Every structure is written in structure tokens, then in C-alpha cells.
Amino acid sequence: MLLKVSLIIAILAGIGTLVVSHLQVSEAVAILKQTLQDTTADLERTRLAEAAAKKDAKASKDEAEKTARELAETQANLETATTQWKAQETRANDNEAKLNRATSQLNDAQRDLGAWSALGIPVELVRNRLGDLVRVTQARDALQEENKEMLQKINKIQAELAKYTQDKDVPPPLPAGLKGTVVAVNPQWEFVVLDIGGNQGVLERGEMLVSRDGKLVAKVRITSVEASRSIANVLPEWKQTDVQTGDIVIVTN
Questions:
Q1: Domain range for 66
Q2: 4 and 76 share a domain?
Q3: 222 versus 63: which is more confidently predicted?
Q4: Which among 42, 68, 91 is the end of a domain?
Q5: 166 pLDDT exceeds 60?
Q6: Is the separation of the CB atoms in 235 and 219 below 8 Å?
Q7: DSSP code per residue over the chain
Q8: Which residues touch 162 (CB under 8 Å, ≥6 apart)?
Q9: pLDDT at residue 153, rounded to an integer
Q10: Is residue 190 assigned to a domain?
Q11: Chosen domain end from 91, 118, 134
Q12: pTM to 2 decimal places
């Protein structure tokens, strides 16, 4: 009898132990499930945050690349516009020179006609003389143009020769007494346009001083030469103040 009671007590104790263990395991499982849910939620939030960060980074990169392209296009447009403006200004100056020359020739012809009429010379003879005058004038203009072209070729050859015979750091000599005026200024790119060019003996890499009211303003180096125009860069180490339209340029040698 005592043995049965002891056995029953042992069985009940085992059952109690199993119940307690089951309760503890269930509680641990619940905690693990909650932890898993929290971890899964955190992982999802992290994944979403990472995706958003990647999207923002791509958008920032695309915007930076777009800005770089727009900047390059703007710079190219500026250079094209500057070149077109120089060409148009050159054509306008050439047309103005031709108009002045034609007006002068017309005035000369009218004066000659008046003089011939005052002397009582026949109109036909006056017409012939005027025709001769026109032909001589045309021949003279053609010779002047040829001389200008020849001078430009000579200056170009001298500039090319100087690249090989002189130190690149030594500017080629410009004609003594050469003087010009600043007709345009680009402060952003630090270059100026001068009203003198190959016809006056300007050479690439030549250097000139810029003055205003007898005071030194800056020093420029010629970078491009045309017949009656040239472009020069402002040398930063010589710059005293901003170059302005109307400033005078003179040779340094």
C-alpha cells in the first residue's frame, strides 16, 4: 500500500514538473516569436530605408550629371556666341570702311567734276577722266588689299617662326609705337578685344600694357590675330584693376 502511495506521489510530482516545464517552454516560445516579429519588422524598415537612400543617391547623381551637362552646353554656347559676335563686328567694320571709302570717292569725283566744269572742259572729257580716276582708285585699293594680305602672311610666318626660334616664355617683339584701344571686355573669361590686328603688325603671344589716364591697369597677351582685330588674355599677375572698354594698349618692348 505504501509503495502505491509513493508511486502515485512520484507520478504526480513528475506531472507537476512537466506542467511547469511546459509553461516555461511556452513562455520562452512566445518571447522568441515576439522577438522574431520585432526583428522581421526592423529588417523590413531597414530594407525600405536602404531602398529610399539608394533612390535619393541615384537622383542626386542624375541631377549632378544633368547640371554638368548644362554647364558644358552653356560654355559651348558662350564660345559660339562670342565667335559669331566677333565675325559680325568684323563684317560691320569692313562694310563701314567700304562705305566711307565710297563716300570719299564720290566726294572727290564731285569736286573734280565741279573743277572741270569751271574750266569749261567738255563733259565727255570729264567723264573719261572720271573713269580713269575710278580705275586708278580701284587699282590702288586692290594694291592696298594685297599689301594687307601680304603683311598678314608675313606676320603669321614671323609668329610661326618665333615658336621654333625663340623661347616660348619670351613674347615676340611687336612694332615700336604700336598702340590700340580695348573695344570689348569679357570679365568672366578674362579676355579683351583690341582694335588692332595683323594689319598693324600684331603677333600671337605678343604682350601689351593696358593703361587708363596714364596709370597701369593690366598686361595682356595676344592669343588670336585677325586683320584689324585681335583677342588677348589678361595676365593675372599684372592685373591692377578691371580692364574697361576704352582703355589704351601699348607695346612693352
A1: 1-91
A2: yes
A3: 222
A4: 91
A5: no
A6: yes
A7: -HHHHHHHHHHHHHHHHHHHHHHHHHHHHHHHHHHHHHHHHHHHHHHHHHHHHHHHHHHHHHHHHHHHHHHHHHHHHHHHHHHHHHHHHHHHHHHHHHHHHHHHHHHHHHHHHHHHHHTT--HHHHHHHHHHHHHHHHHHHHHHHHHHHHHHHHHHHHHHHHHHHS-TTSPPPPPTT-EEEEEEEETTTTEEEES--GGGT--TT-EEEEEETTEEEEEEEEEEE-SS-EEEEE-GGG-SS---TT-EEEE--
A8: 172, 203, 205
A9: 67
A10: yes
A11: 91
A12: 0.40
* Cell numbers at 47, concatenated: 530594407
Residues 90/226, Cβ–Cβ less than 8 Å: yes
246 Cβ contact list (under 8 Å, min separation 6): 181, 182, 212
φ, ψ for residue 192, nearest 5 deg? -130, 160
The amino acid present at 144, given as its one-letter code, is: Q
Give the model confidence (pLDDT) of 7-35 as tens digits.
667 676 666 676 556 566 677 667 877 87
Measured between alpha carbons, how far is 194 from 149 in angstroms, rounded to an integer? 19
If one counts the domains in the chain, the total is 3
**Residue 109 has which C-alpha cell?**
569725283
Do 242 and 183 lie in one domain? The reply is: yes
